[in-house]
Amino acid sequence: MKMIINLHNGMSDMSALHIQNLSKKFGQQNAVYDTSWQAKRGEIVCLLGHSGCGKTTMLRLIAGLESPSAGQIMFGDRILWSNTHHVAAEHRNIGLVFQDYALFPHLNVFENIKFGLNHFKREQQKQIADDVLKHVSLSQHATKYPHMLSGGEQQRIALARALAPKPDVLLMDEPFSNLDRRLRDRIRQDTLSILRDLGTTTIIVTHDPEEALHIADQIILMHEGQIIQSGTPQQLYETPNSLFAAEYFSAINQIPCVVNHNVLKSACGQLEFKSINPEQRVDQSTSPNANYLYCFRPYHVTLSVEPQNQDSIPVTVTSSDYLGHQMLVKVQIHSTSYIIHAQGIFHCPTHVGQALFMCIQPQQSFIFAKDSATP
Ligand code: ATP
Questions:
Q1: CA dihedral of 214, 219, 225, 226, whole degrees rounded to 10
Q2: Which of 23, 118, 221, 311 fits a 20 to 30 Å CA distance from 141?
Q3: Which residues form the ABC transporter domain (predicted)?
Q4: What is the pLDDT of residue 280?
């Protein structure tokens, strides 16, 4: 076990961040609106969403850099903000890592890390800074200044500085977005293993769905200040609650369909309703015969020269793109104008004009009401 083990903050398993009905208005605009969610102790939570959806505002509210318009923020049974109770940012015991790392250029690495440790005794400060530097494997750079470090090293120093005061919660705003792809994968992996090792409750803002799927225990998907869906990466990817959530994680084929008497009819043929992903079945009792979209990811389409079963659909290839490890093949359903995207490794000819048969995995498909992008 590494020396840094003394960075554990000793909070009980009960401790967690509780966000209750939190809102923030800027003028007339709701940057965050009536959001409620929780982070368990030691959990890595990703706030995910497009630019302007309110992720950074949420982070700043938790940090105490903005005041909510309404709601409550708690850590365990400690109220950080409510209508009647406000804990100042410097007393929240929350660590922050910014996108640009915000290291002090005039302080060396060691001094940067010691900066937030004023409330510890002098000898403790040195011990903590030494420990945390070891943990991010940068002890040999202690006397260097930020401009003498690579982007990845600066990121790890920023992480070390935020972790040194033993925060109850670590907040990271797009921490990997300034790194090039290869470096990003490695630094992200290193960061994750440090956070998991320490059991630090961490909230990470990102707009990158792959990153969120890769690193999060829990994803909070936001849109226009509100939470669209929260859950594990699998829950969001495999059982999205809306077209918005489904589309956030990959391109989605969308075919208009009607559902009636337990049968789904679309240009992809007829399908027994019960074969669809059970989480995705619409309530027919409230809207019989209504129009829906039959949706499926390009990865859940298979192509073959011969029909694979009675549900195989005749198609013709309209384009075929080599992606290295996969192909993206677009096919047109016979006698319709619908173009379906199929992505994967296909063991059949995929040149333009090739006649093929397509199969869709019903268990991996979704059905959403038309004209309702969000739940
Ligand atoms: P990005 O990914 O681009 O950083 P975001 O999801 O983090 O976006 P926020 O920065 O939280 O979004 O902004 C949410 C909304 O609130 C935006 O429309 C933004 O313009 C607005 N906003 C944020 N801060 C302020 C402010 N200080 N004053 C006025 N409006 C603000």
A1: 150
A2: 118
A3: 17-249
A4: 58
